[in-house]
Amino acid sequence: MPRAVRLRMRIRIGLTMLLGSALLAPSARADRRTMIRAYEYMTQPQDNLELELWNDVSAPVAGGFDQASTLQRIELEYGLTDHWDLALYHVFGQDPGASLRFDSWRLETRYRLFEKNVLPVDVMLYFEVERPANFSEPWVIEEKLILEKDFGRFALVANLVGEQKPFHGNQGYEWEIDAGARYEVVPQLRLGAEFWTIQETAGGVTVGSYYLGPAVSFASSKLWVQLGAGFGIGESSGATFVRSVLGINL
Who's near 126: CB < 8 A, 6+ residues apart? Predict the structure, then answer.
């Protein structure tokens, strides 16, 4: 057999073994995400510490990604119990043509009420407080009711979200609905689709935006990565939103 043919065969066998090892590797024990907006029914296991690196890109229709703004988050997340975790974010942002800036600190906590499938629909509570780096801006608080229903490898997820600025009600408030579906091809690979709407109210006027898009998630024993996009629907939702998250078990 010619040497070049043997080399190609070895490369193919090596790639096949590498792909097989990745798919057969145990999935990450940490807080894995599938969708880019909706949170799923999962918290960090007790005493587990995870580093997460988030990257958001928001590009307007006019100008596209040449005029995109970005938001990066560095998060440490720790499991207080198997049902309750706590996370601290440092958030950085960059607008088109501007320098990278420190945006805010954020503290998040989540609590799962029961083990999976005890209730007809799994329920998790979420609370977040944000302190903008610009101290002249008000604090922001956010609450989520996280719902999930599994049907074997298929699952439906919904989040009901509220956001307020305490003692600054004149600056308005937001509410949001996230709805998604995921399918587990193998334990390490999940595919998802998601819809969400954000409704912003200020001065008695409400402006809504609507998004729809796909997502994919891959996990190994030590890390997981998620990537997805949301495409604006309608005239008031003229933006494309892309998010990637890398989680590393420490």
Answer: 39, 108, 109, 110, 142, 143, 144, 145, 146
